[in-house]
Amino acid sequence: MAGTSSYVHFHDIPDVVLAIIFSLVADTRTRNVMSLVCLKWHLLERSTRKSLTLRGNIRDLFLLPTCFRAVTHLDLSFLSPWGHPLLDSSSNPLLLAQLLRHAFPSVVSLVVYIRNPSTLHLLAPQWPNLRHVKLIRWHQRLPTEPLGSDFTALFEYSGMLSSLDVSLFHSWTEDLLPAIKAYPLIAASLSHLNILKHSSAEGFKSHELLAITASCPNLRKLLATCIFDHRFIGFVGDQTLLALASNCPCLSLLHLVDATSLSNIRPDPNDEGYTSEDASISHTTLGDVFAGLPLLEELVLDVCYNVRDTWPALELLNSRCPRLKALKLGQFHGICRGINARLDGIALCQGLESLSIKNSADLTDKALEAISLGCPRLSKFEVLGCKKITGKGMWELTHALRKTLVHVKISFCKNFNAVSSLQAMEPIRDRIEGLHIDCVWNTLDNSENQTRSSSSQELSESYNLQARKRDMIKEEKMLKKKSKSHFHDVGDDNLFSSRTWSKLHHLSLWISVGELLTPLSLAGLDDCPALEEIEIKIEGDSRNQQRPCMDSVGLRSLACYPRLSRMLLDCSGVIGYALTAPPGQADLSLWERFFLNGIEILNLKELNYWPAQDMDLNQRSLFLPAAALLAQCVSLRKLFIHGTTNEHFMMFLLRIPTLRDVQVREDYYPAPENDTITEMRVESCRRFEDALNSSNRHIPD
After folding, report:
1. Does residue 271 sit in helix, strand or coil?
2. What is an example of a Pfam family matching this protein (predicted)?
């Protein structure tokens, strides 16, 4: 403005406006950097911090900071040693609980690891205004504790509780109901209840589920593990679903999953996709359930047993649940017939933005085409275990939804390997942000799948899309000014102008034990300039495999992704011998060398690693080869080992100059009660953390 000084200091911004700016910054490390600018910014950052995850050793809790007075969400589940009783380290646990309240007086959301009920008896009275609580426990429940004792203190002192998450809390299904019945006012105030039991193979019986929902009539979000197998007492069928909808008519999220679905067992690719038993759920009942839940926005029904001819019920979703945005169906057949290009079944749900179809035996390419035409808002699409769809149908779907679709998952589908999955993504190559494929390299039917070449002529021929090229060429002229990567006409030799995955930032891969990652870049994923995070799931029985013939699974091939900084390497699905293996076979230490060799080449900042397991010993350990290879990752800043290891192996990690955060988490069920196999006990963690945080270690940043 004329007549005003051009020199305006940042400190001239009013404190109220500056506080609002600080509160909008969510990234923890960015906030920490901001707090180092000056004392004023330091105080302002601390006073506007709303969420905090507490790290460090439980023996140092008396050194709690007192500058985070505005924190409303507090996570205490990652204190070290992980999984140990939170307050038992102190000679006066009540005083320690009071120190937590004094340091964080504004907490209304709490996440905590509960090894025994005494922890909640001490913590719950400190924050009477708690609204959201998430309990975590992977250790076995104490059999001597009475039913409901884990929840008694929480319900007694948290009169404003509205959200309870026990999905990662191991308890018996009989534990929750007595506590809910004993505190009817708390039950009536609950709006969010997550009782998915990831740590148990048991599901809630129908009478338990109905009793819980009858006591919690105001639920808006319900996630539960159930039993849909009609051969068991207490299975969930037509009457249970109708009663549930009647008990909680205000539900906006309903997530019902059979207990066997959480085991993630890979289906047999040679079966037809139907189970031997049908669920006791009819399409007529489904229609009535949908009518009873008019506010539904997200629905998950993973039944694991056949639900046949469901298209009439799914046609009602659009009219009876007009707010529905996300839908996941498991073992539902006949969801869309796709006859004569007529829209029916699920294809009439025009408002869907996320759709996941699992183990639908009769889902065809015609049905995919109908879905793409009837659900034009889809931004996320997943197909798992669907045996009849092919690359042609998936290509048609991605082409029709190329303006909205940004997340795709293709897994366990018989007619897809890695190459065909990537070829089906061609229409959205320059838009897709998240992708999951299976690293299956075997060649499928030659008439449907071709290997990748430098051009996509083979793609267009195999999919028989010549009739649609003219429309795409016309559309190209409109897209040239809007996109750097566009379709263009070069005769019949090239259909797409770019092979760059310009927006792909998250990649998820499944690979069988013994297979290699090396062909990934050759299959078409060689140019991903924005890829920051990769998730790799390795599964299989290494006891049926010979010694690895190669020195590495191929992690060094991922060095072609320049921005890759985070990796989740999950080998927990690999079964093997933790001790001496029979002649001709490899124990898990050799397999770990195979999995991790080459990781030192990658410029990783954060790594989550799940070691392979010996099921007979219930052991998931980091062995010497893995520790030595991880110690060579010179750029690593965060390392989380989801298993156990020896103390002297952990000391190898001190060679990483930038390492700041390390933790050993036995977050699998059942977590060992007393770790007598390895040396990582309470004192071991203390010694390692003292060495990690020693003043002798110079951290570059």
Report:
1. coil
2. F-box_5
Q: Which of 563, 501, 572 is nearest to 536 (CA)?
A: 572
Cα–Cα dist 501/420, whole Å: 16
Q: Within a domain: residue 122? A: yes
Domain count across the chain: 4
The neighbouring-strand residues paired with 195 are: 224
In 439-548, at which residue ranges do the beta strands (DSSP E only) sit? 506-512, 533-541
Q: What is the pLDDT of residues 650-689, one digit of tens each?
A: 999 999 999 999 999 988 888 877 666 566 677 888 889 8
Amino acid letter for position 33: V
Amino acid at 441: W
- Res 581 pLDDT > 90: no
* One domain for residues 360 and 223: yes
Q: What is the mean pLDDT of residues 167-180?
A: 93
Clarify whether residues 149 and 251 are in a common domain: no
pLDDT tens digit string along 102-157?
A: 999 999 999 999 998 999 999 999 999 999 999 999 988 888 889 999 999 999 99
CATH of the domain at 16: 1.20.1280.50
Answer whether residue 474 shows pLDDT above 50: no
Say yes or no: 31 and 99 in one domain. no
Can you tell me the distance from the alpha carbon of 344 to that of 170, in angstroms, rounded to the nearest whole number? Answer: 42
* 431 within domain boundaries: no
596 within domain boundaries: yes
Centroid of chain to Cα 74? 21
Range of the domain at 641: 506-693
Q: Is residue 259 part of a domain?
A: yes
Are the C-beta atoms of residues 218 and 265 closer than 8 Å to each other? no
d(C-alpha 236, C-alpha 226), whole Å: 7
Q: Is the peptide bond before 294 cis (omega within 30 degrees of 0)?
A: no
Going by C-alpha positions, the residue among 128, 177, 176, 187 that lies closest to residue 150 is 176
Same domain for 29 and 62, yes or no, is: no
What CATH number has the domain bearing residue 560?
3.80.10
Please give the pLDDT value at position 4: 52
What confidence tier does 215 reach under pLDDT thresholds 50, 70, 90? very high
Res 13: pLDDT: 79
Residue with tokens 């006891």: 543
Distance CA 85, CA 81 (A): 9
**Residue 8's pLDDT is what?**
65
Which secondary structure element, helix H or strand E, spans residue 569, and what is its range?
A: strand 566-575
Which of 403, 428, 462 is where one domain is finished?
Answer: 403
83 shares a domain with 21: no
User: Which residue blocks in 360-403 are alpha helix, DSSP H?
Assistant: 365-374, 391-400
Report the half-sphere exposure of 383 (CA within 13 A, side-chain side). 27
Spatial distance between the Cα atoms of 570 and 595, rounded to a whole number of angstroms: 10
pLDDT tens-digit map of 622-657: 999 999 999 999 999 999 999 988 889 999 999 999
- Are 620 and 613 in contact by the 8 Å Cβ rule? The answer is yes
Tell whether 288 and 388 lie within a shared domain. Answer: yes
